[in-house]
Amino acid sequence: MNAPDFIKAEELLEVLFQSPNATAVYANDTITILSANAAMLALWGRDKTVIGNSFKDALPELIDQPFYGILQQVWRSGETFIARDQPATLQVEGRLRLFYFDFEYKAILDEDGKTKYILHTAFEVSQRMRALKLAEEKSIAEQKLMEELTALNEEFQTANEDLHALNEEYLTSNENLAVLNEEFQVTNEELLSTQEQLQLLNQDLMKSEERFRSLIEQAPVAMASLQGREFNIEVVNKKVLEIWGKDSSVLGKTLEKALPELNGQQFIPILQEVFDTGIPFFGKELKATLNVGGELTDRYLDFVYQPVKSNDGNTDSILIVANDITYQVLARKAVDELNTRLEIALDASKLGSTEVAIATGVMQSTAQFKRNYGYEPDEEFTYADLFAAMFPEHHERVRGLVREAMATNGVYKTEYPIRWRDGSVHWIQAHGRPRYDENGKADRMVGMTLDITEAKLYEQRKDDFLSVASHELKTPITSLKASLQLLERIKDKPFSDMHIKLIEQSSKSVNKMNYLVGELLNIGRLTGEQLSLERTRFNLHDMMAMSCSHVRLEGKYELILKGDQELFVYADEHRIDQVVVNFVNNAIKYASESKEIHMQVGSVEGFAKVSVTDFGPGINEHILPNLFDRYYRVDQTEKVYNGLGLGLYICKKIIEKHGGKIGVESTVGEGSTFWFTLPL
């Protein structure tokens, strides 16, 4: 692990390869030498020209020895090989010499668990082996001496019986013993020398451990060493203490005691598994909750738990190498959150977006963009499909706008009709802007589309409404003008029935205009959300009994009221009466042959319910969903009805303002029932 802001990878490698420990790196199954430091080249008796050669070509004297086969096995299996006191015959200074080594072939694995490199570290132990061999030889000599002494002792006992006869032999044996004693003294001196060498080796080992500690403490990345299965904190550096939010007082403690907040998190179990299996663990963007300054803080880490094994091959410690990537993860999550919000905003507004590669016409479109053209999200949609859906007369105009935007680095905006594959016509509002490559050439076009079919239909209905309103207002105005002109002509004549008739006609025209203007004012207040309610508590049955007096006085239609006579509601009585009058007027207007109109008052599930039923021609099923829309007017065959198409829309707004619901049920040939509910 390396932090590039502190030291470059190649510089770190250069530092590591200045180590007095022999180190080399190999790659691929031919065991190509990628790198070897000076210590390793010295052991081999080679120079840097072997770098880049295969192991067999660089060290041919080792071909009949086991090392090349071991390296190939490590490469294939990905398992590290460790050896001690291994003999090797190397050609040094032109002649073959026997050496002994402790060495390790360590498999460096990639993210897929395949061997990427082999790290070869070696220590020459020839002196140690010579010392051990010499000690073994001396031990054999001592054993042999003891056996000889035993034999001599037996001979001495035998010779004691004939002491005088064997005196010369005894003297000879005594001389031999003196010689052996001298040899024993020499052997003892050699053993002392071996002991001194072992002491030097122990000192070197201590220096290696000190260098290891220094390497961890000065490393530019967070590092720590945990000893044993209790994970005692043996070595830490400043970087890891900063991540943990601790100081050097954690040294000597177990990880669980030093960082109690790790209990319940995944890290201790992972360490236990690494210790038991000897398999390293690579963590990627794992979240750790740590107590930093007395406050639990989430940090995101990339780290490695690397088992360190003893000579017997068992794990005795774990090396931690970590990198705090909290800032990067939080920054990416912030970007993801912004993208999510953008997607939500686009979905909520039903905006579709796309990016078109100008050279190929390939489009990368959102699901909503495809829906705007009648395509499913998983269907392919190309630039050619877009123009195939567009009405042909708009092709050149839209292409011209795109070319102009590319030439001026501007934004094009336009509207055009399209035809879906099912034959339905829709309107699209589109705008976009070019994107440029590093050479300043427009290579992409980013576009946004919105289905404005409803807006276009609304605009059309508005135009229709203005046309109807103009026509409806023109009729009473024309009639009023004609009446006034006639009155002007006969103003000096004696008062007659003609005067009365013209005055009545004028009054009707004024009333008609007043009604139409009233509808316009109501729709204006509803559109501006200015409809106010003056609520009172009143008897709903009594109100309906008093409602529609104009119909009752005329006597052409019979209003039949039924239901709960003691039902009270808290509502705006005038507005509710306005809804009832509208229902009754519609019954008279559209079902004039139905002389009975039934009015029902009752309650259902906590709501008061009012219904008005006629027994006229009924309403076609496909018309029912549109009856309460603004400006909608029912056109029956061969019949034309006056009005602005606002009455039921106003009724709907009044009832919804009260928190109730409104609806209609109708059967062609049997009649219609308009109803509404109010909270009790």
Molecular structure report:
The protein is α+β, with helices and mostly antiparallel strands. The chain has 19 helices and 22 strands. The strands form five sheets. Strands 2-1-5-4-3 form a five-stranded antiparallel sheet, sandwiched between helices. Strand 9 (295-309) and strand 10 (315-324) form a beta hairpin. Helix 14 (453-489) packs antiparallel against helix 15 (497-527) and helix 15 packs across helix 19.
Overall geometry comes to elongated
Count of individual helical segments: 19
Major beta sheet summary: 5 strands, antiparallel
Derived from helix and strand composition plus strand pairing, the structural class reads alpha+beta
Share of helix among residues? 40-55%
A few lines on this structure:
The protein is built from 19 helices and 22 strands. By secondary structure, it is an alpha+beta fold.
Any key phrases for this structure?
680 residues, alpha+beta, five-stranded antiparallel β-sheet, 19 helices, 22 strands
